[in-house]
């Protein structure tokens, strides 16, 4: 069923799935006409921000869902998924899963949202009737708890700033984040991976300032009490709504990642831009604070937090991605 050309087409579509810090850790190998290996590039990890590898595994799940969405458009489906046991390797890459593809796939209702989905880290447009209608439709999703614009969102925005600064004060975390930021267009990695200035809605002057504030000037600015106000993003966060993404307790992050991608695509399908604020769910203190104010159904855990809203029509649409040839091994 699969030849090399179709396989490349499918992987190109699958590569549009999100990954933590846009590190793109998933690699692919075509074993037979119906068998695909999902592999992990062990060099693309986040030891400080993701020491357990939870978010990387979630990223693999999103990539697998991306492949599933791509398959549907070509009459294929993932008929079987066998998980790696953690010790299997191919060419030095850890086997995450073995996928068996089969006929009978159909175009997914969310497939049309794939091309437009991206992170929007700028301010959202003012709330309007269509935003409220879209939020009401999203509220029916089983994995999302929607917090509409208002004082509750302002409260979450302030919490996000406190949590974000908490992690920035950890040298290893801040340096790791900065290492994955592409703040200059002269950076050879600008269009390949990581978080570039365009994706973060930063102008050239803002990007230069970010490289200084998060880099060599941070210790001094912190002592002067200036680092925290210079890293605030509450006005951007508070300009939209919030969606808490939750999943069953004990679920394999691979499955969580598949659902995460679909939840994000459902926002795009409603005409909304979104961006995860992962630190809110990652830090136990903020996670507990959110659950105290916004309880989840029994048996669910908070996985991530999205800020979402209406994106300006002239917003940048660039997405940094590795060439497909580097993803297929």
From TrEMBL:
The protein's name: Nitroreductase domain-containing protein
Organism phylogeny: Bacteria, Pseudomonadati, Pseudomonadota, Alphaproteobacteria, Hyphomicrobiales
InterPro entries, per database record: Nitroreductase-like
Highest taxon in the source lineage: Bacteria
Organism, scientific name: Bosea robiniae
